[in-house]
Design a protein that fits this description.
The protein is built from one helix and 28 strands. By secondary structure, the chain is mostly beta strands. The strands form six sheets. A five-stranded mixed β-sheet has the order 1-17-16-15-14, with no helix packed on it. Strands 2-21-20-19-18 form a five-stranded mixed β-sheet. 33% of the residues are buried.
Length: 261
C-alpha cells in the first residue's frame, strides 16, 4: 500500500542557535573494536572486530560471524532478544537471539520482488524498516510473510543515515531529518543540514554534525547541543538517557537526564 505525504505540511524549521545540554560524565570502558555497536537495556556491550559480532555481559561473552556475507554494515539491538544484523554487500539481513544464535535470515537477492537494500532498522513484532535504493522508498517489511506492508512515495535522494524505535523511523539526508510513523506517514520534517549519523531513544534523537552531537526531543521539537569534553566520536549510541561515545579506544558515557532542581 502506497501512502502519499507532503513534506511542506509536516515541516518544522529549526533555528541555527541551539540551547546547550550539560551532561554528567561517567568512568570510561576500554575497548578494542572496529565498530562499537552499543549497550542494551540489560547493560550488555556489543561491538564488531574482524567481521565478528561480539556481545559481553557481566563475565559472559558470545560471538557470531559469517565471512561469506562480507563485512557487517549495521547491527540493531533495540530488542536484545531479536538482534538485527545487516550485510549490505550481500543484501542480507540476519536475526539473532540473545546468545547471538541465528534464528532467521532474509537474502533480498533471492526474493521474487528484488530489493536493493541500503539501510535496515527495527520496527515492531516481526516487522522492520528497509530503504530500497532502486525505488528510493522507505518500506515496512514483514519478516515472516517476506513482503512489504507499507511503502512511502519515492524520496528525492538516498538518505545518509536511518534509525528507528518501536514507534518511528527517521531518515537523515544532507538538508533534512524526516520522521515516519509505523503507517508510513511522514509526521515531521526538520530542516537540519549536514547530519552525519543519528541514534534514537524513547523520547529523543541524538544526531551528529561536524561540530558535535545534538539532542532533538520529538515530543517538544526542541534541539540542544550536547556540551562534551574534547573527544573524537568514532561511534555513539543512546540507551534511555545515557549517551555512549567510542573514541577508538574508550567508551565514554554521559547522563543526559536533566539535574533535579
Amino acid at each position: 500500500m502506497k501512502l502519499l505525504y507532503i513534506i511542506a505540511f509536516a515541516c518544522c524549521f529549526v533555528h541555527k542557535s541551539y540551547t546547550q545540554l550539560l551532561p554528567n560524565a561517567h568512568t570510561g570502558i576500554t575497548l578494542d573494536a572496529d565498530q562499537f555497536i552499543g549497550i542494551d537495556t540489560f547493560d550488555a556491550l556489543y561491538y564488531t572486530k574482524d567481521q565478528i559480532l561480539y556481545k559481553k555481559w557481566n563475565s559472559q561473552s558470545w560471538q557470531y560471524g559469517d565471512y561469506s556475507l562480507g563485512n557487517i554494515t549495521s547491527v540493531h539491538i533495540l530488542n536484545p532478544l531479536k538482534i538485527i544484523v545487516f550485510y549490505a554487500n550481500t543484501n542480507t539481513v540476519l536475526f539473532l537471539d540473545k546468545y547471538l544464535t541465528e534464528i532467521d535470515r532474509i537474502a533480498f537477492n533471492t526474493l521474487s520482488e528484488f530489493k536493493n537494500v541500503s539501510f535496515v532498522s527495527p520496527a515492531n513484532d516481526t516487522n522492520f524498516w528497509i530503504f530500497d535504493s532502486n525505488t528510493q522508498q522507505l518500506e515496512l517489511f514483514d519478516s515472516v510473510a517476506r513482503s512489504t506492508i507499507v511503502t512511502t512515495q519515492p524520496l528525492p535522494t538516498i538518505p545518509i543515515s536511518q534509525n528507528s524505535n518501536f514507534y518511528y523511523c527517521w531518515l537523515a539526508n544532507d538538508t533534512q531529518l524526516l520522521q515516519f510513523n509505523t503507517y508510513g506517514t511522514l509526521t515531521n520534517t526538520f530542516a537540519i543540514e549536514h547530519i552525519k549519523d543519528i541514534r534514537v531513544s524513547t523520547n529523543h534523537l541524538v544526531f551528529q554534525k561536524e561540530n558535535g552531537l545534538y539532542r532533538l526531543s520529538y515530543t517538544t521539537n526542541t534541539i540542544e547541543k550536547i556540551k562534551l569534553p574534547e573527544i573524537t566520536t568514532k561511534q555513539f549510541y543512546v540507551t534511555n538517557e545515557i549517551l555512549y561515545i567510542y573514541d577508538r579506544s574508550t567508551i565514554h558515557s554521559f547522563d543526559l537526564t536533566p539535574p533535579k532542581k
